[in-house]
Amino acid sequence: MFHLILFLFFGAICVAGAVNLLVQSHPINSALSLVVVMASLAAEYLLLGAEFVAAVQVIVYAGAIMVLFLITIMLLNAGKEERTKSSRVATLLGVPAVMIGAVLVAWTLLHRSNMQTPVHIGALPGNVQDIARLLFHDFLLPFEVTSVLILIAIMGAVVLASRPEAVDRGARKDG
Amino acid sequence: MIPLSYYLMLSGILFVCGVLGFLIKRNIITIFMSIELMLNGVNLSFVAFAAHWHSLNGQVFVFFVMVVAAAEAAVGLAIIIAVYRTRETLNVDQVNLLKL
Q1: Residues 6+ apart with CB under 8 A from A59
Q2: Taking CA atoms, what residue in B is nearest to A31?
Q3: Distance in Å from the first CA to the final CA of chain B
Q4: Is residue B100 part of a domain?
Q5: B18: domain range?
Q6: Cα torsion for B18, B20, B22, B26, to the nearest 10°?
Q7: Among the partner residues B8, B17, B70, nearest to A18 by beta-carbon distance
Q8: How many CB atoms lie within 10 A of CB B37?
Q9: Which of A8, A75, A164, B79 has the most C-beta neighbours closer than 10 Å?
């Protein structure tokens, strides 16, 4: 019962943050409500017994990625978004399409009786050590590939975000 | 004790909010945040199914999704900065040409 109350509390915060992200017109407000969504999702992960994922969610998502977003918003000095004609078209077509998708998801969930298995805190069998064993034995190759991916992403971000004249100067110095 | 379908409902609501934001928002940074919202919704269903099947593989996959999301955020925001340098706008309606 206590778990259910906690789940509903954090779930309500989560949904409120997601709706607030859509309603707000200034990107800073959207970013801050996304932080709320991610923090309450970390609480949901704790309720599921996934401590490692909850910690990584706070550190990586609510920490690193959102700081990146906020820095970009402040760097570009993004103001309120302006509505144009095509944004009305997107709303008129997008909202019904999304509603159809939502109804399909809800119908699938409600008509599958085996989805009623209860889960509770500590339901997951392993702790961080088991995850580490899995990550460094069974998933060793994907893990190493992600490190290469991160390296490529860093280089790509540096090249894309640097000023074109700086890249030219570097090329001239090399050649 | 919480039924699994509650978690899947929450994950579905988050995903639908992400799709809606992707479609109706005009600011390119907010569209990007909607994508992150969708990724978060999928992550929640991954962890819920990991608890359902008593398997840790779901948590490892969430880890990989987070890594890819971090890489995607870094490169995507760099592209947004590059776009802003040439177009002086963040409105996706005004970014309709591949080459200026």
Answers
A1: none
A2: B33
A3: 58
A4: no
A5: 4-94
A6: -130
A7: B17
A8: 27
A9: B79
In 3D space, the residue among A60, A41, A32, A71 whose CA is nearest the CA of residue A161 turns out to be: A71
CATH of the domain at B76: 1.10.287.3510
pLDDT for residue A175 is more than 60:
no
What are the two backbone dihedrals, phi and then psi, of residue B27, each rounded to the nearest 5 degrees? -85, 130
- Residue of chain B whose alpha carbon sits nearest to that of A142: B64
Question: What's the structural domain count of chain B?
Answer: 1
pTM of this structure: 0.86
Using the predicted structure, report yes or no on whether residue A121 has a pLDDT greater than 80. Answer: no
Distance (Å, rounded) from C-alpha B55 to C-alpha A125? Answer: 7
* Nearest-5° Cα angle at B53, B51 to B56: 65
Q: What is the ipTM, given to two decimal places?
A: 0.91
Distance, in angstroms, between B68 CA and closest chain A CA?
8
Residues of B in Cβ contact (< 8 Å) with A28: none
**Other C-beta atoms within 10 Å of B83: how many?**
17
Contact call for B67 and A149, based on CB within 8 A: yes
